[in-house]
Batch of 2 targets.
Target 1
Amino acid sequence: MKFSNRFLVKTFNSRDTVSVHMAEDFLPEGLERLKHFIADTVAESGSKAVVLGLSGGLDSAVVSRLCVEALGGENVLTVFMPSASTPTDDWDNTKSYSRSIGCEYRLIPIERMVGTICSDLKADDPLSRGNITARCRMIVLYHIARAEDRLVVGTGNKSELLMGYFTKYGDGACDMLPIGGLYKTQVYLLAGLLGVPQEIIDRKPSADLWEGQSDEEELGIRYEELDLILSALERGRSPEEIAAIKNIPMKKIMAIEQRVESNRHKRQFPPVAEL
């Protein structure tokens, strides 16, 4: 998947037409706001440093680069936590990328931890193992954060958050989400602006929670089309309006709308009984 700095991000405006924003029109200012957000959040916590998981994919590469620019490389720790399904290339790629942006890198394999839990719980299916893998990674990050007075930085984007495409209390657990307000297509634009290597930008999106897993295949839709639907729904457009303007099947739009609503619980704190 290739995106350049001039990839079009289409959104629906109040006149029911499609407005087109070029990356250079809105991202430079947004980039500075993201860096200030990271620096301010860390300062307000009383800490100076952060830790995040580095997967070899686009989102974590973008977030780690943002953190380095906001805090300095000496205050950023990236942790690579491979499991049995992690591609072999990621072992070298994550290390070289961390070195290239000037931050600390640690390798902490988690397969033994994951295997023990899966065995004890008799969790044999790929989804259960994937969720356990994600939660084991967060155990590692929060242990480091407590021991070293760091904040855990999440790498989720807006498309994934709205779709509930993350593991609750796994990769969804963090102290801040720098790109949580950006759709996946916008993250591609930001990656180009930050100078993220093209091989990372071109990589097929995957959480690598099991062998052969693909984000878009699991979501059932390409990010370009998904983000058009999500951005239109966010601006109050009805499924009928979206279908008429973008020639997208109503069934697909309504399925996305339903998934966003059904996963609302993953984006909220647990309900508390008021007595």
Target 2
Amino acid sequence: MTSKKLLYFSLLFFVLFSCKDSGVLVKPKYKTTVFHGQQGETEVNAFNRKQAEREKSLAEEIEKSEQALQMLKEQQKMFYSIDSTERIKEIDDQLNRLMARTEEIIKSLNDTDPYTPEGHEKSLRLAKELNDLLYQYVVPLGELISANKEIKNISADISFDTGSSLISAEGKRLITTILDSIKADIKAWGNYLDHHNEQIFADEDYSTILIISGYSDKQGSGDEKTRTERNLELSEARAKAVAAEFEKQLKALDVKWKLSFKISYEGKGEVLPPSITDDKQKNNPNRRVTTIRMVVGPKILLYNSGE
């Protein structure tokens, strides 16, 4: 074969494997020596090697983004297993934002042409964003959701006098113990971020969100309407007292913790507390509690743009 004919067939081969058809790119199952391309499978060779690598790289990023979305769906499922009144809204908002952006990345990757330099550059940009999304948000968010599943109870019998919303010395000590667990959580997050995201979270502040709910039993004088109203007021007053004590002690924490906080409280009255079975008894100490739903983590995970 003359050199002119060899050059001709080489150019023809290049053109055949460089023209993208109008079909949809299907994520291939790779073998290291096979190029799937637009014209069907062929061996990887000097002419198609670069395109084969771009094709494989794009398919791997599509796979990674689909795994990220599946991880978020599992996190959402775990999050929604929590009683709706006890969920941390900021986690729900963050989950929805991450899922929406991950779905956009998947669509953009599937619309990307891997056989051109421009398409390859686009896939690299999306791959970097996906990687940042995974390790800055998706993976550590799972840690927050696990923490949100934990409820800490403060017994009203220990923390308050009968019929009173004035928190006792023992109640204050219980809150101090919970604050010690917040400090421990911050240290644990620091170790986690140093190990996984040292550069990303180098100067990260922390935040804690507390949801405080007061509950009562069914004791009380007067008719049922009067009793339930009084118990609702008492449960709210106790929740408010616990919230105030948390705020006081959180403000007193050393500034070295770089900890901001958000506290909300609500009286539930005679509603059954989470995980408590109704034994039909009016005087049930398990119902006279204040529950603490608490989550601690990097501020960036709990607030959009750290706000």
